[in-house]
Amino acid sequence: MCTNTRATCFKLLLSPHSGWIRFNNKCFMFKGKKGEIKANWSYARSWCKDQGGDLAVIDNQYENDLELPTWIGMSDLLVENQYAWSDGVSPVLYTNWNDKEPNNAGGAEHCVALAHNHLVSGKWNDDACHKDHSFVCSRKKCQ
């Protein structure tokens, strides 16, 4: 088990050939750093599925500490105000909403992003799904 900071542990556990990072019992892939793809929520989910995963399911605070502003795999696209994971099977075991979120501002916010900036870190915000953000994929097996 890695005993360094969480961010360092992610880097140490990176599989250099696949781009997947082993963390706890899952693997993650981050996209959207400088020069990389950024995408709206639907395209990000499709891209993750093409890599054998889905947008990330966040099950606990430890996984929430990704330190990137990014789309995760939660939305209320199927049923308004009922947030669920995009894989359709994972139960919602953990949430970390920012104050006064989700708020569906303008009636157009249905997808969830992690916020990381000088004001908040790791808090969740419902956002307009058409916006381009970095994103994080997850899957059970690294290969």
TrEMBL record:
Stored PROSITE patterns: C_TYPE_LECTIN_1 (PS00615), C_TYPE_LECTIN_2 (PS50041)
Gene3D superfamilies the UniProt entry points to: Mannose-Binding Protein A, subunit A
UniProt-listed InterPro entries: C-type_lectin-like, C-type_lectin-like/link_sf, C-type_lectin/snaclec_domain, C-type_lectin_CS, CTDL_fold
C-type lectin domain sequence ranges: 23-138
Top-level taxonomic group: Eukaryota
Pfam families given in the database record: Lectin_C
Keywords: Disulfide bond
Statement: the UniProt record of this protein carries the keyword Disulfide bond: yes
UniProt name for this protein: C-type lectin domain-containing protein
